[in-house]
Amino acid sequence: MRIIVNVTAGGGVDATARVIAQHLNTVFKQPVVVENRTGAGGSIGIELVAKATPDGHTLLVCSSGIITNAAFRTQGYDPIQDFQAVSILTSAPYIVVSTPSFPAKSIGDLVGAARRKPDAVSYASSGVGGVTHLAAELLAMLTDTKMLHVPYKGVVDAYPAVAAGEANWMIGASISALPLVRAGRLRALAVTTATRSTALPDLPTVAESVPGFEFAGWFGMFAPAGTPMVLAQKLSAEAKRGMQSPAFLSHAQLDGTEVVGSAPAELSLLVKKELATWRSVVVKAGLGQ
User: Regarding the domain with residue range 93-208, which homologous superfamily does it belong to in the CATH classification?
Assistant: First the structure.
């Protein structure tokens, strides 16, 4: 068996895949190898799994970028038609963060500033069409505001820019934003999930100020379309068991990440819901390419 990871080794997706691979190795008593297949914004690895034989021997572990990438521009895969959903592995909030010196100390303040001076308030993103860009556009749409988008090549460049005041705010994944918030380099305004984060319980949700705004960053497992449901359900159950190690759970809690381990149907519904949401944002904002 092999688990394809569409990003480089060392990050959260890769670490999650390796924990699961180790467990599956023990359960199925056969080698389970993690292969990092990067390139084309992650699409190369995703397409490889889409075209694989649907026998459970080739799986994909990836982030929700599989959805935002497809929503922004046509890919060589269809996230609904080309895959059998297996499991939502983990879920974590994104955090709206701002320059510490920026006057806005809440989402209400941020929206108010944007309404007073359209296009004067700026937000950074990790790149055009990425989730941090589309989520900021969603916030602007729901609040009927206009803000200036400043895209960077990744969060490695975007975070320092916001910390230095080159852009006023951005939306970042909790795993990467939390250390900067705790160090005082960024100010946390709100989390993007429907409920407050266990890692930052005093931080409000965006939805408390902007009803309807809700999304989380998640890691999921997929198999090629045509994979028998009974096999998908077995893989889902074992993936959940594999993530129950104390070390993995402790690390996840520190990052504000929830270990989910859902049934296939839950991931299938999430894919359809998010694809519709992000495609709507792309169309309404005139971002499609």
Answer: Periplasmic binding protein-like II (3.40.190.10)
Q: Tell me what pLDDT residue 288 has.
A: 65
Does pLDDT of 289 surpass 60?
no
Tell me what percent of the residues of the chain surpass a pLDDT of 70: 99
Question: Distance between CA 146 and CA 161 in Å, rounded?
Answer: 20
Average pLDDT over residues 97-111: 97
Residues with Cβ within 8 Å of 280's Cβ and at least 6 positions away in sequence, in order, are none
Give the residue range(s) of CATH 3.40.190.10 domains in the chain.
93-208
Say what the pTM is.
Answer: 0.91
Beta carbons of 86 and 232 less than 8 angstroms apart: yes
| Separation of alpha carbons 243 and 93, rounded Å | 19
Cα angle value 185/187/192 (rounded, 5°): 125
Mean of pLDDT values over 76-104: 97
Which residue's structure tokens are 């859902």? 262
Where in the chain are all domains bearing CATH 3.40.190.150? 2-92+216-284
Separation between Cα atoms, residue 114 and residue 270, nearest integer Å? 31
Where is average pLDDT lowest: 13-22, 203-212, 248-257?
Answer: 248-257
CATH of domain 2-92+216-284: 3.40.190.150
Q: Phi first, then psi: what are they for 180, rounded to 5°?
A: -75, -35
Token pair listed for 279: 């495609």
User: To which residue do tokens 């400043």 refer?
Assistant: 150
Contact 131, 217 (CB under 8 A): yes
**CB-based contact 215:192 (threshold 8 Å):** yes
Q: Is 263 helix (H, G, I), strand (E, B) or coil?
A: coil
